[in-house]
Structures are given as structure tokens and as C-alpha cells.
Amino acid sequence: MKKKHLSYLGTVLFSVLLLSLCGWVISRELKAYNYRDIANSLANLPRSRLLFSVLLAALGYGIMTISDALAVRYVRYPLPWYKTTLAALTSVTISNSLGFALVTGSAIRYRLYSAWGLSKVAIAQVIAYGNLSFWVGMCAVGGILFVTQPLPIPAILNLPFASMQIVGGIFLSLAIAYLILSILTHNRALRINNHLFRVPSLRLSVAQITISGLDWAIATGVLYTLLIPSGLSFPAFFSIYLLAQLSGIISHIPGGLGIFETVIVLLLQPQVKPDTAIASLLAYRAVYYLLPLSIGLVLLAGYELRDRLRK
Questions:
Q1: 91: enclosing H helix or E strand
Q2: Most buried pick, 267, 273, 278, 308, via CB within 10 A?
Q3: What is the per-residue pLDDT across 27-86, written as a single tens digit (0 to 9) for each?
Q4: How far apart are CA 232 and CA 236, in angstroms?
Q5: Residue spans per domain, the chain
Q6: pTM for this one?
């Protein structure tokens, strides 16, 4: 009984800590930009573009939920679609703004999936599947784009090479190697450091790349829609967007705040003026980060409240 009480207390404390941390993040996000700047950026955009960007963002986050549905299928633990949707939306929307997605997203998924009966091993596999999907999609899409749409690397990134073509070649090789591994293993388990890892089947691996690739394309489309037409093709802008996101991810700054914008502004010149790019980026932050973050917080708080009332 005492053990059960301590477990319950630990769950409550974890929930309070998580929600408090999320509240701090959203307040910090709002302070990072002046409210009037965001409002003016949104007001100056054509309504049709703004609405389309919101719909694209909703579609993108909807596609992300499929990854969690496939992950629980991968660990052979069936769950209702609304549970995997809740886990995906809360973890992704919040971790996108918190940064350190491997830690923050994993913590939220652990909280929810453990409550729904998954073992620690199964949850670890779900998390690994999701993170693997993220990176294998980045490698596949980024590999193709960085090779076909080569970019000069901004000096502020301080990388040992001048063009992203080398990175693109490495990324593409990794994605192809992953597919070959899926074919060769035939869904068998591999032992890595005394841990068994079951490589997803070729069908699941292709699904991983497809869903992750669509996610990256739609996220790019949100910002592309918000930018005033500049003459840049979508593939060229897609390449810029991926490099900016990669820079933000490597920095571990929450949401890539500052790094992402800097790379975008630098690489869009001279096609897009800095003030125009910054206005569109402010609107993008509101549409793709702040709005989903607010929804994710409401969903998580609603779940926690319902869970407390049930107990």
C-alpha cells in the first residue's frame, strides 16, 4: 500500500513539474518576441496565406501522430488511435518548444504509455522508433536536397566544409544503408551492447521515411506559404529550411530559437530582404510553435486533470 502511495505521489509530482516547465517555456517564448511584433506580422499577412499555413501546420502535426501509431504496432502492443494521437501531439508540440526533444518528448511519452500498460522496454522501443523515424527521414530528404540543391554554409556555423553536398552524400548513404539493413535482417533482432534491437521490416522502414519526409515537407511549406513570393523554388527553399533546422537541432536551444532564424535570413538574401524574412519568421513561430504548444498544454493538462479525478 505504501509503495502504491509513493508511486502515485511520484506521478503527481512528475505531472506538476512537467506542466510547470511547459508554462515557463511558453512564457519565455512569448518574451523572446514582442507581442506587437508578432501581431503586426500576422496582421500584415494576407488572410488566405495565414489560413493556409494554419491548415498546413494542422496537417503536419496530424501526420506526426501516424508515427506513434506505427511505433506501437512495431512493439506489438495495440492501443486505440486516440491514445497514440494524444501521446504524439502532446510530446511533439511541447518538445518542439522545450528543445532537447530526446529528453522532453521521451518524458511525456513515458508518462502516458506507462499509464496505458506498456512496459519500460516497450516504451523505450517506441521512443527509439520515433527518434529513428525523425533522423532517417531527415537523412533521406536532406540527402537528396543537399546533393541536388547545394548550399553555401554560413560562416557562423563554423563547419569544416564549404558546401552541404558532402553532408548530403553522407545523409543519403545512411538512409540507403538503413533500408538495406531492413532487407537483410528480415525483421530479426540484433544484439547491440547486450540489448536486443529488432530492425523494422522494410515496409515499416519505408513508412518511417515517407511519414518523416512528409512532415519535413509540410513544415517547410508552412514557412514557404508565409513568405512573400521571392522567386525561390520550393526545393531550393526546402534545402535552406532543412539546413536551418539542422543548425537549430545541433544547438539544443529550445525550438532552435535564434539559430534557425539567423540561418534562414542569411541564406534568403538577396532574394528576400531581412525585415521581410523576419516578419514571416515571427508569424511562423506563432503558427507552427506557439499555437500547437498551447494546444499540447491544454491536452496534457486535460488528461492529467481527468486522471486525477478518476483516482
A1: helix 81-98
A2: 267
A3: 554 455 555 665 666 677 788 888 999 999 999 999 999 999 999 999 888 899 999 999
A4: 6
A5: 47-304
A6: 0.81
